[in-house]
Amino acid sequence: MSTSPTLSSSLPSLPPLCHDLVSIPFFVLVLVLVLLVFLGCAVNRSSGESFLFCIYLPWLIWEGVGCDESDRVNSLLLPSKGLVGTISPFIVNLTSLSTLNLSQNWLSGPIPDGFFMALNRLVIIDISHNRLTGQLSDSDKLMSTVTIVDLSSNHFYGRIQSSFLQPALNLQRFDVSNNSFSGSIPSSVCRFSHSIVHLDFSNNDFVGPILQGFGQCPNLLRLRAGFNNLSGAIPNDIYTVSALQELYLPANKLSGVIDGSIVNLINLRNLSLYGNELSTCLPINSLE
User: Fold this and answer.
1) Any idea what the CATH number is for the domain that residue 171 is in?
2) Are 179 and 205 in contact (CB under 8 A)?
3) How far apart are CA 201 and CA 185, in angstroms?
4) Which residues touch 131 (CB under 8 Å, ≥6 apart)?
5) Backbone dihedral angles phi then psi of residue 148, each to the nearest 5 degrees
6) How far is the first Cα of the chain from the last one, in angstroms, to the nearest whole number?
7) Domain that holds residue 170
8) Overall number of domains in the chain
9) Using one digit for the tens of pLDDT, what is the confidence trace for 64-113?
10) Where are the transmembrane segments (predicted)?
11) I want to staple 8 with a disulfide (CB 3.0 to 4.6 A). Which of 23, 85, 204, 249 is the partner?
12) Cβ 250 vs Cβ 272: under 8 Å
């Protein structure tokens, strides 16, 4: 077992029974939550003998676990708690979960099969800065409720399929930076959601040309894809996104002439294109 700090190290003083629950690997914590939710839902409320742990078992209420009005777990906010182990497959039984933040821990292993589809009420997913690995399953996909997805700073690899992103009609932020994802950058994400403001694909193993598509994100503020193996020209439709404030594409293999229509990016504040083979006929002050 890892010598990393346990969950209990960062929690306030709790009764002994609660300490027994939280001083354990994360997959056991999830199993306990799922079991209690099942027991709570299995009781006939009309009998008046409810077993809804959020209200009637106060020793199980600890920092980071929230419940909705139906006494179901709807949020796990456990960043920087020293959690170790894997994400238990039983987490998919927390079907009322809308916010999941497990960032800045020591979690490892793959995401459970069907994770994104099973938790179809998720709005915010942040599992960044862990040691998670594996590929995004071809049979899994984001749901329409999700607005923020942060998978950055893990060890994920493989392609990000368009089918994974297609149902995410309300997606606003998608960050997969600092992993080992490969294949083409999924510019098709902008066809599915016009609400996107932040896309970060930097520090991966993406290859090939940047395909047309980002021009369909009218509200995009930041597009980051530096430190990959991207090649070819910068697609012209990027220059139509007048809201864009940051275009970060350094340390790739991009080539060709920077189109003069880049001057249409009137809100651009940060332009990073170094480490490529790009050229321009524009005067320097037109890019300032």
Assistant:
1) 3.80.10.10
2) no
3) 7
4) 106, 107, 108, 154, 155
5) -130, 125
6) 53
7) 67-287
8) 1
9) 888 888 878 899 999 998 888 999 888 888 899 999 999 999 999 999 99
10) 22-43
11) 23
12) yes
